[in-house]
Design a protein that fits this description.
disordered C terminus; 247 residues; Undecaprenyl pyrophosphate synthetase; alpha/beta; binds farnesyl diphosphate
């Protein structure tokens, strides 16, 4: 749920990113798609630290969607292996840099090895406070809403006790404010089932930059655009209090 208000600071508290374009980046270089994902991990590590440097408190990234299982087996297993390697390669650096790691998504389908690696990453960084990196893995926005409803029903929540705040307590990102800024790289202009509940009032920013090329210049361009947006949360435009309407 949002704890934002009309006086949002120019720096977003929470940024969400769909890291798209790894495959095309690799193809342009006549390399296998896996190579693009590998470079994508480096771009992610860079971006976490850049966000922390700019005072962003939460970064949530889409690493593997509920629908990504439809990709060729070779690519799926390559991605799973890459994530395992990335955790062991970068965990100590991210932990030392004050990054708290959380994983959101359905863990039941992932291997025991990966589940253990996620747990270790979460456990070893749980006291860090500089920035929270939430990695959405085997995640879908519809899955998230459904799993929250199921948990609420299992808890015996009465229908008249169910409101937005009550359901939000069961959502995967219940520990974070709603994303203020939602970035998608790679040139596609869609949300692709990411954070459907939480992004209701996020500012959307689409970039043609392919994810492995995402760096400080692209991040700062997105932040500058965000600072220019007039956030209304369903209210009226700032400076036009007498006009009705606006989303
Ligand atoms: C989309 O590009 C990217 C993905 C499906 C994977 C993103 C994953 C990472 C960057 C690695 C994350 C790693 C950790 C440790 C969390 P695409 O393959 O759809 O690219 P395309 O649109 O050019 O084909």
């Amino acid at each position: 749920m949002s704890d934002s208000n009309d006086a949002s600071p120019p720096i977003p508290r929470h940024v969400a990113i769909v890291m798209d374009g790894n495959g095309r980046w690799a193809k342009k270089r006549f390399m296998p798609r896996f190579f693009g994902h590998k470079q994508g991990v480096d771009a992610l590590v860079r971006t976490v630290l850049s966000c922390a440097d700019r005072g962003i408190e939460y970064l949530t990234v889409f690493a593997f969607s509920s629908e990504n299982w439809k990709r060729p087996t070779e690519e799926v297993s390559g991605l799973m292996g890459l994530v395992l390697v990335a955790v062991s390669k970068y965990l100590s650096k991210l932990a030392a840099d004050g990054v708290r790691i959380r994983i959101i998504g359905d863990r039941r389908q992932v291997s025991d090895k990966l589940r253990e690696a996620w747990l270790q990453a979460e456990e070893s960084t749980r006291h860090n406070t500089r920035i929270t990196l939430s990695v959405a893995f085997n995640y879908g926005g519809r899955w998230d809403i459904l799993q929250a409803c199921r948990q609420a029903m299992d808890d015996g929540l009465a229908s008249d006790a169910l409101d937005e705040a009550a359901l939000n307590r069961y959502m995967a990102l219940s520990y974070a404010p709603d994303p203020d800024l939602f970035i998608r790289t790679g040139g596609e202009v869609r949300i692709s089932n990411f954070l459907l509940w939480q992004a209701a009032y996020s500012e959307l920013y689409f970039s043609d930059c392919l994810w492995p090329e995402f760096g400080d210049a692209e991040l700062d361009a997105a932040l500058a655009e965000y600072a220019r947006r007039d956030r209304r949360f369903g209210g009226v435009p700032s400076g036009a209090a007498s006009l009705a309407g606006g989303a």
